[in-house]
Amino acid sequence: MSGLKQILFLTLHEKRDVALAVFFGFLAGVAGVALLASSGYLISRAALTSQMTILIVMGACLKLFGLASALSRYAERLFSHRATFTMLSNLRSSFFEKLSPLAPGIFSHYRSGDLLARIVGDVESLQNFLLRVLYPPIVLLLVFLSTIFFSAYFSMGIAAVIAIGAFLTVFAVPAVFAMRQRTIHNAARASRASLSTESAELLHGFRDLKINQRLEQKQQQLEDFSGDYGSQQRKEGLEENLSQSVNGLVALLASFFVLGLGAYFTAAGELDGLYLAMLVMISLGAFENVSPMAAFPAHFEENRKAASRLDEVAPAAPVLKGDGQPPQWPFDITLDNINFTYRGEERAALTDISLQIEPGTKTAIVGPSGSGKSTLLQLLLNILEPDEGTIRLGGRELAELDQEKVWESMNAVLQENHFFFGTIKSNLLIANESASDEQLEAALSQVQLAELALSMKVGEKGQNLSGGQKQRLAIARAIIRRKPLWILDEPVSSVDSITAKAIYSELFSSGKDESFIIVSHDLTALSQMDQIIVMDGGKIVESGTYDSLMQKKSYFYELKQIEKDVFA
Ligand SMILES: Nc1ncnc2c1ncn2[C@@H]1O[C@H](COP(=O)(O)OP(=O)(O)OP(=O)(O)O)[C@@H](O)[C@H]1O
Q1: Which of 182, 290, 323, 385 is the most exposed place for a label (fewest CB within 10 A)?
Q2: What is the ipTM of this complex?
Protein backbone atom coordinates (compact mmCIF):
# COMPACT_ATOMS: atom_id res chain seq x y z
CA MET A 1 0.00 0.00 0.00
CA SER A 2 1.49 3.35 -0.97
CA GLY A 3 2.39 5.85 1.76
CA LEU A 4 -0.53 8.28 1.86
CA LYS A 5 -3.05 5.51 1.16
CA GLN A 6 -1.89 3.73 4.27
CA ILE A 7 -2.16 6.91 6.35
CA LEU A 8 -5.66 7.44 4.93
CA PHE A 9 -6.53 3.86 5.83
CA LEU A 10 -5.23 4.33 9.39
CA THR A 11 -7.11 7.64 9.72
CA LEU A 12 -10.37 6.25 8.40
CA HIS A 13 -10.02 3.41 10.88
CA GLU A 14 -11.19 6.10 13.36
CA LYS A 15 -14.27 6.68 11.19
CA ARG A 16 -16.58 7.64 14.03
CA ASP A 17 -14.32 10.44 15.30
CA VAL A 18 -13.51 11.56 11.75
CA ALA A 19 -17.23 11.71 10.84
CA LEU A 20 -18.05 13.60 14.05
CA ALA A 21 -15.15 16.02 13.45
CA VAL A 22 -16.37 16.70 9.89
CA PHE A 23 -19.96 17.09 11.10
CA PHE A 24 -19.07 19.55 13.88
CA GLY A 25 -16.56 21.35 11.62
CA PHE A 26 -19.35 21.83 9.08
CA LEU A 27 -21.75 22.96 11.80
CA ALA A 28 -19.19 25.47 13.17
CA GLY A 29 -18.54 26.81 9.65
CA VAL A 30 -22.22 27.13 8.78
CA ALA A 31 -23.05 28.65 12.17
CA GLY A 32 -20.26 31.21 11.64
CA VAL A 33 -21.67 32.12 8.23
CA ALA A 34 -25.22 32.22 9.66
CA LEU A 35 -24.01 34.51 12.46
CA LEU A 36 -22.64 37.03 9.99
CA ALA A 37 -25.65 36.63 7.66
CA SER A 38 -28.14 37.30 10.44
CA SER A 39 -26.14 40.30 11.62
CA GLY A 40 -26.21 41.69 8.04
CA TYR A 41 -29.93 41.04 7.85
CA LEU A 42 -30.47 42.59 11.28
CA ILE A 43 -28.64 45.79 10.25
CA SER A 44 -30.76 46.17 7.10
CA ARG A 45 -33.94 45.23 8.88
CA ALA A 46 -33.28 47.66 11.75
CA ALA A 47 -32.85 50.46 9.21
CA LEU A 48 -36.06 49.63 7.39
CA THR A 49 -38.47 48.46 10.08
CA SER A 50 -39.55 49.41 13.56
CA GLN A 51 -41.08 45.96 14.33
CA MET A 52 -39.55 45.03 17.68
CA THR A 53 -40.49 41.32 17.49
CA ILE A 54 -38.44 40.77 14.33
CA LEU A 55 -35.47 42.57 15.84
CA ILE A 56 -35.73 40.53 19.07
CA VAL A 57 -35.98 37.26 17.13
CA MET A 58 -32.97 38.27 15.02
CA GLY A 59 -31.01 39.22 18.15
CA ALA A 60 -31.82 35.83 19.67
CA CYS A 61 -30.73 34.11 16.42
CA LEU A 62 -27.42 35.97 16.57
CA LYS A 63 -26.78 34.68 20.09
CA LEU A 64 -27.84 31.17 19.13
CA PHE A 65 -25.55 31.06 16.08
CA GLY A 66 -22.66 32.47 18.12
CA LEU A 67 -23.13 29.82 20.78
CA ALA A 68 -23.60 27.03 18.21
CA SER A 69 -20.44 28.11 16.38
CA ALA A 70 -18.33 28.11 19.56
CA LEU A 71 -19.67 24.76 20.81
CA SER A 72 -19.33 23.09 17.40
CA ARG A 73 -15.76 24.37 17.05
CA TYR A 74 -14.96 22.86 20.45
CA ALA A 75 -16.50 19.49 19.48
CA GLU A 76 -14.75 19.56 16.11
CA ARG A 77 -11.34 20.11 17.78
CA LEU A 78 -12.06 17.39 20.32
CA PHE A 79 -12.97 14.70 17.77
CA SER A 80 -10.41 15.65 15.14
CA HIS A 81 -7.55 15.66 17.67
CA ARG A 82 -8.73 12.42 19.21
CA ALA A 83 -8.81 10.77 15.77
CA THR A 84 -5.36 12.20 14.98
CA PHE A 85 -3.70 10.99 18.15
CA THR A 86 -5.23 7.52 17.84
CA MET A 87 -4.07 7.39 14.21
CA LEU A 88 -0.56 8.47 15.26
CA SER A 89 -0.39 5.82 17.93
CA ASN A 90 -1.59 3.17 15.39
CA LEU A 91 0.96 4.45 12.90
CA ARG A 92 3.80 4.19 15.41
CA SER A 93 2.76 0.62 16.29
CA SER A 94 2.42 -0.45 12.66
CA PHE A 95 5.78 1.17 11.75
CA PHE A 96 7.44 -0.52 14.70
CA GLU A 97 5.91 -3.86 13.69
CA LYS A 98 7.38 -3.42 10.21
CA LEU A 99 10.74 -2.36 11.55
CA SER A 100 11.08 -5.02 14.19
CA PRO A 101 11.75 -8.04 11.89
CA LEU A 102 14.40 -6.00 10.04
CA ALA A 103 16.07 -4.90 13.24
CA PRO A 104 19.34 -6.86 13.31
CA GLY A 105 20.39 -5.95 9.78
CA ILE A 106 18.70 -2.58 9.42
CA PHE A 107 21.82 -0.46 9.89
CA SER A 108 23.35 -1.92 6.77
CA HIS A 109 20.50 -0.17 4.90
CA TYR A 110 19.90 2.98 6.92
CA ARG A 111 22.09 5.30 8.90
CA SER A 112 20.86 5.69 12.47
CA GLY A 113 20.23 9.45 12.13
CA ASP A 114 18.11 8.82 9.05
CA LEU A 115 16.03 6.23 10.88
CA LEU A 116 15.61 8.58 13.82
CA ALA A 117 14.43 11.33 11.45
CA ARG A 118 11.85 8.93 10.02
CA ILE A 119 10.64 7.58 13.36
CA VAL A 120 10.39 10.97 15.06
CA GLY A 121 10.16 13.66 12.34
CA ASP A 122 8.10 11.88 9.70
CA VAL A 123 5.65 10.30 12.14
CA GLU A 124 5.20 13.67 13.88
CA SER A 125 4.53 15.50 10.61
CA LEU A 126 1.72 13.06 9.87
CA GLN A 127 -0.21 14.46 12.81
CA ASN A 128 -1.28 17.16 10.35
CA PHE A 129 -2.76 14.70 7.87
CA LEU A 130 -6.33 14.80 9.16
CA LEU A 131 -6.20 18.28 10.68
CA ARG A 132 -4.63 20.17 7.81
CA VAL A 133 -4.81 17.96 4.72
CA LEU A 134 -7.81 15.66 4.66
CA TYR A 135 -10.40 17.46 6.63
CA PRO A 136 -10.24 21.23 5.73
CA PRO A 137 -11.19 20.76 2.02
CA ILE A 138 -14.10 18.43 2.94
CA VAL A 139 -15.52 20.80 5.55
CA LEU A 140 -14.97 23.85 3.33
CA LEU A 141 -16.68 22.15 0.43
CA LEU A 142 -19.73 21.37 2.57
CA VAL A 143 -19.87 24.92 3.98
CA PHE A 144 -19.53 26.47 0.53
CA LEU A 145 -22.17 24.14 -0.97
CA SER A 146 -24.68 25.16 1.73
CA THR A 147 -23.74 28.84 1.30
CA ILE A 148 -24.09 28.64 -2.49
CA PHE A 149 -27.49 26.91 -2.27
CA PHE A 150 -28.73 29.48 0.25
CA SER A 151 -27.46 32.46 -1.80
CA ALA A 152 -28.92 30.99 -5.01
CA TYR A 153 -32.37 31.41 -3.44
CA PHE A 154 -31.83 35.21 -3.46
CA SER A 155 -29.55 35.66 -6.47
CA MET A 156 -28.08 33.15 -8.93
CA GLY A 157 -25.42 35.69 -9.99
CA ILE A 158 -24.14 36.13 -6.42
CA ALA A 159 -24.21 32.34 -5.86
CA ALA A 160 -22.10 31.94 -9.02
CA VAL A 161 -19.53 34.48 -7.76
CA ILE A 162 -19.28 32.62 -4.44
CA ALA A 163 -18.93 29.31 -6.34
CA ILE A 164 -16.09 30.67 -8.50
CA GLY A 165 -14.38 32.16 -5.42
CA ALA A 166 -14.73 28.81 -3.63
CA PHE A 167 -13.23 26.94 -6.58
CA LEU A 168 -10.28 29.33 -6.70
CA THR A 169 -9.55 29.41 -2.97
CA VAL A 170 -10.26 25.74 -2.14
CA PHE A 171 -8.80 24.07 -5.25
CA ALA A 172 -7.02 26.22 -7.81
CA VAL A 173 -4.73 28.40 -5.67
CA PRO A 174 -3.77 25.55 -3.26
CA ALA A 175 -3.08 23.26 -6.28
CA VAL A 176 -0.71 25.80 -7.86
CA PHE A 177 1.12 26.30 -4.56
CA ALA A 178 1.22 22.54 -3.93
CA MET A 179 3.17 22.16 -7.18
CA ARG A 180 5.54 24.99 -6.28
CA GLN A 181 6.01 23.54 -2.78
CA ARG A 182 7.18 20.19 -4.12
CA THR A 183 10.65 21.43 -5.12
CA ILE A 184 11.14 23.64 -2.07
CA HIS A 185 9.89 21.00 0.28
CA ASN A 186 12.06 18.21 -1.16
CA ALA A 187 15.15 20.35 -0.66
CA ALA A 188 14.14 21.21 2.92
CA ARG A 189 13.47 17.58 3.76
CA ALA A 190 16.76 16.42 2.25
CA SER A 191 18.71 18.95 4.28
CA ARG A 192 16.79 18.03 7.44
CA ALA A 193 17.70 14.35 6.85
CA SER A 194 21.37 15.27 6.30
CA LEU A 195 21.40 17.36 9.46
CA SER A 196 19.87 14.58 11.52
CA THR A 197 22.18 11.90 10.06
CA GLU A 198 25.32 14.00 10.58
CA SER A 199 24.26 14.95 14.13
CA ALA A 200 23.88 11.26 15.02
CA GLU A 201 27.31 10.52 13.51
CA LEU A 202 28.90 13.36 15.47
CA LEU A 203 27.36 12.07 18.66
CA HIS A 204 28.52 8.49 18.10
CA GLY A 205 31.97 9.41 16.89
CA PHE A 206 32.61 12.34 19.24
CA ARG A 207 35.54 10.70 21.05
CA ASP A 208 37.29 9.48 17.90
CA LEU A 209 36.87 12.84 16.22
CA LYS A 210 38.33 14.59 19.27
CA ILE A 211 41.30 12.22 19.49
CA ASN A 212 42.01 12.69 15.78
CA GLN A 213 41.54 16.47 16.04
CA ARG A 214 38.70 16.36 13.53
CA LEU A 215 35.98 17.64 15.84
CA GLU A 216 36.07 21.23 14.63
CA GLN A 217 35.93 20.16 10.99
CA LYS A 218 32.89 17.96 11.69
CA GLN A 219 31.29 20.72 13.77
CA GLN A 220 31.75 23.15 10.89
CA GLN A 221 30.16 20.62 8.52
CA LEU A 222 27.22 20.27 10.89
CA GLU A 223 26.85 24.06 11.13
CA ASP A 224 26.79 24.23 7.33
CA PHE A 225 24.03 21.61 7.23
CA SER A 226 22.16 23.51 9.93
CA GLY A 227 22.53 26.82 8.00
CA ASP A 228 21.32 25.12 4.83
CA TYR A 229 18.30 23.69 6.64
CA GLY A 230 17.57 27.13 8.14
CA SER A 231 17.57 28.78 4.72
CA GLN A 232 15.35 26.02 3.30
CA GLN A 233 12.95 26.57 6.19
CA ARG A 234 12.92 30.30 5.50
CA LYS A 235 12.06 29.61 1.86
CA GLU A 236 9.23 27.33 2.98
CA GLY A 237 7.94 30.03 5.34
CA LEU A 238 8.02 32.67 2.59
CA GLU A 239 6.17 30.37 0.23
CA GLU A 240 3.52 29.70 2.86
CA ASN A 241 3.10 33.44 3.45
CA LEU A 242 2.76 34.03 -0.27
CA SER A 243 0.16 31.27 -0.54
CA GLN A 244 -1.74 32.82 2.40
CA SER A 245 -1.64 36.29 0.86
CA VAL A 246 -2.76 35.14 -2.59
CA ASN A 247 -5.59 33.05 -1.17
CA GLY A 248 -6.67 35.92 1.12
CA LEU A 249 -6.63 38.34 -1.82
CA VAL A 250 -8.76 36.04 -3.98
CA ALA A 251 -11.25 35.61 -1.09
CA LEU A 252 -11.44 39.38 -0.59
CA LEU A 253 -11.90 40.01 -4.31
CA ALA A 254 -14.75 37.47 -4.36
CA SER A 255 -16.48 39.37 -1.52
CA PHE A 256 -15.96 42.67 -3.39
CA PHE A 257 -17.54 41.11 -6.45
CA VAL A 258 -20.49 39.98 -4.36
CA LEU A 259 -20.89 43.54 -3.06
CA GLY A 260 -20.54 45.10 -6.53
CA LEU A 261 -22.82 42.61 -8.21
CA GLY A 262 -25.34 42.82 -5.34
CA ALA A 263 -25.39 46.63 -5.60
CA TYR A 264 -25.92 46.38 -9.36
CA PHE A 265 -28.77 43.84 -8.98
CA THR A 266 -30.37 45.99 -6.27
CA ALA A 267 -30.16 49.10 -8.45
CA ALA A 268 -31.58 47.08 -11.36
CA GLY A 269 -34.41 45.88 -9.12
CA GLU A 270 -33.41 42.26 -9.41
CA LEU A 271 -32.51 41.92 -5.71
CA ASP A 272 -34.36 43.19 -2.66
CA GLY A 273 -31.95 45.68 -1.00
CA LEU A 274 -32.92 44.18 2.37
CA TYR A 275 -30.78 41.12 1.54
CA LEU A 276 -27.72 42.87 0.13
CA ALA A 277 -25.87 43.30 3.43
CA MET A 278 -26.78 39.71 4.35
CA LEU A 279 -25.33 38.29 1.11
CA VAL A 280 -22.13 40.31 1.47
CA MET A 281 -21.79 39.12 5.07
CA ILE A 282 -22.44 35.52 3.90
CA SER A 283 -19.59 35.69 1.43
CA LEU A 284 -17.28 37.31 4.02
CA GLY A 285 -18.21 34.57 6.51
CA ALA A 286 -17.71 31.73 4.01
CA PHE A 287 -14.37 33.03 2.75
CA GLU A 288 -13.17 33.58 6.31
CA ASN A 289 -13.04 29.78 6.56
CA VAL A 290 -10.56 29.35 3.69
CA SER A 291 -7.45 30.46 5.61
CA PRO A 292 -6.42 26.80 6.43
CA MET A 293 -6.23 26.18 2.66
CA ALA A 294 -3.25 28.54 2.46
CA ALA A 295 -1.22 26.12 4.57
CA PHE A 296 -2.63 23.09 2.71
CA PRO A 297 0.09 22.87 -0.02
CA ALA A 298 2.94 22.80 2.51
CA HIS A 299 1.17 20.28 4.72
CA PHE A 300 0.11 18.11 1.80
CA GLU A 301 3.65 17.94 0.44
CA GLU A 302 5.14 17.32 3.87
CA ASN A 303 2.65 14.52 4.55
CA ARG A 304 3.08 12.94 1.12
CA LYS A 305 6.85 12.83 1.53
CA ALA A 306 6.75 11.68 5.16
CA ALA A 307 4.34 8.86 4.31
CA SER A 308 6.43 7.64 1.40
CA ARG A 309 9.65 7.77 3.49
CA LEU A 310 7.96 5.63 6.15
CA ASP A 311 6.66 3.31 3.47
CA GLU A 312 10.15 2.95 1.97
CA VAL A 313 11.60 1.41 5.11
CA ALA A 314 9.87 -1.93 4.94
CA PRO A 315 10.62 -3.21 1.45
CA ALA A 316 14.22 -1.93 1.44
CA ALA A 317 15.54 -4.68 3.66
CA PRO A 318 14.83 -8.40 3.41
CA VAL A 319 12.14 -9.58 5.76
CA LEU A 320 12.86 -12.86 7.41
CA LYS A 321 9.36 -14.19 7.22
CA GLY A 322 9.41 -17.84 8.15
CA ASP A 323 6.92 -18.93 10.78
CA GLY A 324 7.77 -22.61 11.20
CA GLN A 325 8.48 -24.19 14.57
CA PRO A 326 12.16 -24.89 15.20
CA PRO A 327 12.99 -28.49 16.20
CA GLN A 328 13.23 -29.56 19.83
CA TRP A 329 16.72 -29.72 21.29
CA PRO A 330 18.98 -31.73 20.67
CA PHE A 331 19.34 -31.02 16.95
CA ASP A 332 22.22 -30.92 14.50
CA ILE A 333 23.09 -27.95 12.27
CA THR A 334 24.03 -28.42 8.63
CA LEU A 335 25.18 -25.90 6.07
CA ASP A 336 25.12 -26.91 2.40
CA ASN A 337 27.01 -24.96 -0.24
CA ILE A 338 26.39 -21.54 1.26
CA ASN A 339 27.31 -18.48 -0.77
CA PHE A 340 26.83 -14.99 0.54
CA THR A 341 27.74 -11.50 -0.69
CA TYR A 342 26.87 -8.34 1.23
CA ARG A 343 24.50 -6.02 -0.62
CA GLY A 344 26.38 -3.60 -2.83
CA GLU A 345 29.66 -5.53 -2.47
CA GLU A 346 31.33 -7.27 -5.37
CA ARG A 347 33.44 -9.72 -3.42
CA ALA A 348 31.68 -12.68 -1.82
CA ALA A 349 32.02 -12.79 1.97
CA LEU A 350 31.39 -16.57 1.99
CA THR A 351 31.88 -19.10 -0.79
CA ASP A 352 30.72 -22.67 -0.89
CA ILE A 353 30.51 -23.23 2.86
CA SER A 354 29.39 -26.71 3.90
CA LEU A 355 29.66 -28.05 7.41
CA GLN A 356 27.92 -30.21 9.99
CA ILE A 357 27.64 -29.49 13.70
CA GLU A 358 26.43 -32.35 15.92
CA PRO A 359 24.41 -31.57 19.06
CA GLY A 360 26.41 -31.42 22.26
CA THR A 361 29.72 -30.69 20.49
CA LYS A 362 32.15 -27.79 20.62
CA THR A 363 33.08 -26.14 17.33
CA ALA A 364 35.65 -23.40 16.89
CA ILE A 365 35.74 -21.22 13.79
CA VAL A 366 39.18 -19.71 13.34
CA GLY A 367 40.96 -17.78 10.63
CA PRO A 368 42.48 -14.41 9.85
CA SER A 369 40.59 -11.17 10.22
CA GLY A 370 38.05 -10.63 7.43
CA SER A 371 37.91 -14.34 6.54
CA GLY A 372 34.10 -14.45 7.05
CA LYS A 373 33.76 -15.91 10.55
CA SER A 374 31.30 -13.32 11.90
CA THR A 375 29.32 -13.42 8.67
CA LEU A 376 28.94 -17.17 9.07
CA LEU A 377 27.61 -16.69 12.63
CA GLN A 378 25.13 -14.07 11.41
CA LEU A 379 23.81 -16.55 8.86
CA LEU A 380 23.45 -19.16 11.62
CA LEU A 381 21.54 -16.62 13.69
CA ASN A 382 19.25 -15.93 10.69
CA ILE A 383 20.23 -12.24 10.82
CA LEU A 384 21.51 -12.60 7.25
CA GLU A 385 20.08 -14.90 4.60
CA PRO A 386 22.36 -16.88 2.26
CA ASP A 387 22.22 -16.03 -1.44
CA GLU A 388 22.57 -19.70 -2.26
CA GLY A 389 22.59 -22.93 -0.27
CA THR A 390 20.63 -24.01 2.77
CA ILE A 391 21.07 -24.00 6.52
CA ARG A 392 19.13 -26.65 8.41
CA LEU A 393 18.43 -27.08 12.11
CA GLY A 394 17.51 -30.71 12.79
CA GLY A 395 16.65 -31.11 9.09
CA ARG A 396 14.36 -28.05 8.97
CA GLU A 397 15.32 -25.17 6.76
CA LEU A 398 16.29 -22.17 8.89
CA ALA A 399 14.77 -19.63 6.45
CA GLU A 400 11.35 -21.19 7.02
CA LEU A 401 11.52 -21.08 10.80
CA ASP A 402 10.16 -18.36 13.04
CA GLN A 403 13.18 -16.18 13.74
CA GLU A 404 12.17 -15.30 17.30
CA LYS A 405 11.63 -18.97 18.16
CA VAL A 406 15.02 -19.90 16.69
CA TRP A 407 16.66 -17.32 18.96
CA GLU A 408 14.78 -18.80 21.91
CA SER A 409 17.05 -21.85 21.76
CA MET A 410 20.28 -19.83 21.51
CA ASN A 411 22.69 -17.95 23.74
CA ALA A 412 24.27 -15.50 21.37
CA VAL A 413 27.15 -13.25 22.42
CA LEU A 414 28.28 -11.14 19.49
CA GLN A 415 31.26 -8.82 19.16
CA GLU A 416 29.25 -5.73 20.06
CA ASN A 417 26.91 -5.96 23.04
CA HIS A 418 24.74 -3.18 24.29
CA PHE A 419 24.52 -2.17 27.93
CA PHE A 420 21.72 0.06 29.11
CA PHE A 421 21.87 2.92 31.58
CA GLY A 422 20.97 1.32 34.91
CA THR A 423 22.66 -1.19 37.19
CA ILE A 424 24.54 -4.46 36.73
CA LYS A 425 21.36 -6.17 37.92
CA SER A 426 19.03 -4.43 35.46
CA ASN A 427 21.43 -5.26 32.62
CA LEU A 428 21.55 -8.93 33.62
CA LEU A 429 17.80 -9.23 34.07
CA ILE A 430 17.34 -8.53 30.36
CA ALA A 431 18.31 -12.16 29.84
CA ASN A 432 15.78 -13.54 32.31
CA GLU A 433 13.46 -11.27 34.27
CA SER A 434 12.70 -13.87 36.89
CA ALA A 435 16.33 -14.69 37.78
CA SER A 436 17.04 -14.38 41.51
CA ASP A 437 19.91 -12.32 42.97
CA GLU A 438 21.66 -15.59 43.83
CA GLN A 439 21.51 -16.73 40.20
CA LEU A 440 22.80 -13.36 38.99
CA GLU A 441 25.68 -13.44 41.47
CA ALA A 442 26.52 -17.04 40.50
CA ALA A 443 26.67 -16.02 36.81
CA LEU A 444 28.96 -13.11 37.68
CA SER A 445 31.28 -15.52 39.56
CA GLN A 446 31.35 -17.89 36.58
CA VAL A 447 32.70 -15.10 34.40
CA GLN A 448 35.15 -14.00 37.09
CA LEU A 449 33.25 -10.80 37.85
CA ALA A 450 32.32 -11.58 41.45
CA GLU A 451 33.78 -8.22 42.50
CA LEU A 452 30.93 -6.32 40.75
CA ALA A 453 27.96 -5.60 43.01
CA LEU A 454 24.53 -6.09 41.48
CA SER A 455 23.62 -2.55 42.54
CA MET A 456 26.60 -1.00 40.74
CA LYS A 457 25.57 1.76 38.34
CA VAL A 458 26.11 1.17 34.63
CA GLY A 459 26.53 4.24 32.42
CA GLU A 460 25.02 4.65 28.97
CA LYS A 461 26.41 1.94 26.63
CA GLY A 462 28.35 0.57 29.62
CA GLN A 463 30.81 3.48 29.44
CA ASN A 464 32.09 2.91 32.98
CA LEU A 465 33.01 -0.75 32.28
CA SER A 466 36.23 -1.98 30.70
CA GLY A 467 36.14 -3.83 27.37
CA GLY A 468 36.85 -7.14 29.11
CA GLN A 469 34.20 -6.48 31.79
CA LYS A 470 31.63 -5.78 29.11
CA GLN A 471 32.45 -9.03 27.32
CA ARG A 472 32.21 -10.99 30.56
CA LEU A 473 28.94 -9.29 31.47
CA ALA A 474 27.58 -10.30 28.07
CA ILE A 475 28.60 -13.93 28.75
CA ALA A 476 26.99 -13.69 32.22
CA ARG A 477 23.76 -12.64 30.51
CA ALA A 478 23.97 -15.70 28.28
CA ILE A 479 24.59 -17.94 31.31
CA ILE A 480 21.44 -16.54 32.94
CA ARG A 481 19.49 -17.22 29.75
CA ARG A 482 20.91 -20.74 29.70
CA LYS A 483 19.87 -22.14 26.33
CA PRO A 484 21.45 -25.27 24.87
CA LEU A 485 23.03 -23.70 21.76
CA TRP A 486 25.86 -21.22 22.36
CA ILE A 487 26.94 -18.92 19.55
CA LEU A 488 29.89 -16.83 20.62
CA ASP A 489 31.78 -14.34 18.45
CA GLU A 490 35.17 -13.48 19.97
CA PRO A 491 33.58 -13.59 23.42
CA VAL A 492 36.82 -13.08 25.40
CA SER A 493 39.03 -11.21 22.94
CA SER A 494 39.57 -8.37 25.45
CA VAL A 495 40.02 -10.66 28.46
CA ASP A 496 43.45 -11.84 29.67
CA SER A 497 44.23 -15.44 28.70
CA ILE A 498 44.16 -16.88 32.26
CA THR A 499 40.69 -15.43 32.93
CA ALA A 500 39.55 -16.46 29.43
CA LYS A 501 40.61 -20.07 30.07
CA ALA A 502 38.80 -20.07 33.42
CA ILE A 503 35.62 -18.78 31.77
CA TYR A 504 35.75 -21.40 29.01
CA SER A 505 36.32 -24.21 31.48
CA GLU A 506 33.32 -22.96 33.56
CA LEU A 507 31.14 -22.82 30.44
CA PHE A 508 32.20 -26.24 29.15
CA SER A 509 31.87 -28.01 32.49
CA SER A 510 28.41 -26.56 33.21
CA GLY A 511 27.21 -27.18 29.63
CA LYS A 512 28.33 -30.74 28.92
CA ASP A 513 25.38 -31.62 26.65
CA GLU A 514 25.18 -28.22 25.04
CA SER A 515 26.54 -27.10 21.66
CA PHE A 516 29.17 -24.39 21.47
CA ILE A 517 30.04 -22.58 18.25
CA ILE A 518 32.84 -20.15 19.00
CA VAL A 519 34.61 -17.73 16.71
CA SER A 520 38.05 -17.05 18.07
CA HIS A 521 41.36 -15.51 17.11
CA ASP A 522 43.02 -17.12 20.07
CA LEU A 523 44.38 -20.52 19.03
CA THR A 524 45.56 -21.55 22.49
CA ALA A 525 42.43 -23.08 24.02
CA LEU A 526 41.44 -25.13 20.99
CA SER A 527 42.51 -28.57 22.15
CA GLN A 528 39.20 -28.93 24.03
CA MET A 529 37.17 -28.44 20.85
CA ASP A 530 35.55 -31.36 19.00
CA GLN A 531 35.87 -29.63 15.65
CA ILE A 532 37.91 -26.73 14.35
CA ILE A 533 36.82 -24.99 11.15
CA VAL A 534 39.62 -22.99 9.58
CA MET A 535 38.55 -20.17 7.25
CA ASP A 536 40.40 -17.93 4.86
CA GLY A 537 39.05 -15.54 2.20
CA GLY A 538 35.44 -16.59 2.85
CA LYS A 539 36.13 -20.31 2.37
CA ILE A 540 36.68 -23.25 4.68
CA VAL A 541 40.27 -24.23 4.04
CA GLU A 542 40.36 -27.18 6.44
CA SER A 543 38.51 -28.69 9.37
CA GLY A 544 39.01 -31.44 11.94
CA THR A 545 40.02 -32.00 15.54
CA TYR A 546 42.96 -30.16 17.04
CA ASP A 547 45.21 -33.24 16.86
CA SER A 548 44.24 -34.15 13.29
CA LEU A 549 44.90 -30.60 12.08
CA MET A 550 48.25 -30.47 13.85
CA GLN A 551 49.26 -33.81 12.33
CA LYS A 552 48.22 -32.65 8.88
CA LYS A 553 50.79 -29.88 9.16
CA SER A 554 48.85 -27.70 6.79
CA TYR A 555 47.11 -24.29 7.18
CA PHE A 556 46.14 -24.55 10.87
CA TYR A 557 49.55 -25.93 11.78
CA GLU A 558 51.19 -22.96 10.06
CA LEU A 559 48.92 -20.51 11.88
CA LYS A 560 49.98 -22.15 15.14
CA GLN A 561 53.63 -21.86 14.18
CA ILE A 562 53.22 -18.14 13.37
CA GLU A 563 51.46 -17.64 16.71
CA LYS A 564 54.28 -19.47 18.49
CA ASP A 565 56.93 -17.32 16.78
CA VAL A 566 55.13 -14.09 17.55
CA PHE A 567 54.65 -14.88 21.24
CA ALA A 568 58.01 -16.65 21.76
N1 LIG B 1 28.01 -5.17 6.82
C2 LIG B 1 28.91 -5.44 5.90
N3 LIG B 1 28.77 -4.93 4.68
C4 LIG B 1 29.65 -5.22 3.70
N5 LIG B 1 30.72 -6.01 3.86
C6 LIG B 1 30.92 -6.56 5.07
C7 LIG B 1 30.03 -6.30 6.15
N8 LIG B 1 30.47 -6.95 7.24
C9 LIG B 1 31.59 -7.61 6.85
N10 LIG B 1 31.86 -7.37 5.56
C11 LIG B 1 32.97 -7.91 4.76
O12 LIG B 1 32.83 -9.33 4.75
C13 LIG B 1 34.07 -9.97 4.89
C14 LIG B 1 34.01 -10.93 6.09
O15 LIG B 1 33.83 -10.16 7.25
P16 LIG B 1 33.64 -10.84 8.68
O17 LIG B 1 33.28 -9.77 9.66
O18 LIG B 1 32.72 -11.97 8.54
O19 LIG B 1 35.11 -11.38 8.96
P20 LIG B 1 35.70 -11.98 10.30
O21 LIG B 1 36.47 -13.19 9.88
O22 LIG B 1 34.66 -12.17 11.32
O23 LIG B 1 36.69 -10.80 10.74
P24 LIG B 1 37.19 -10.43 12.22
O25 LIG B 1 37.96 -11.59 12.71
O26 LIG B 1 38.06 -9.22 11.97
O27 LIG B 1 35.98 -10.12 13.03
C28 LIG B 1 35.10 -8.86 5.06
O29 LIG B 1 35.74 -8.67 3.82
C30 LIG B 1 34.29 -7.63 5.41
O31 LIG B 1 34.86 -6.48 4.87
Answers
A1: 323
A2: 0.96
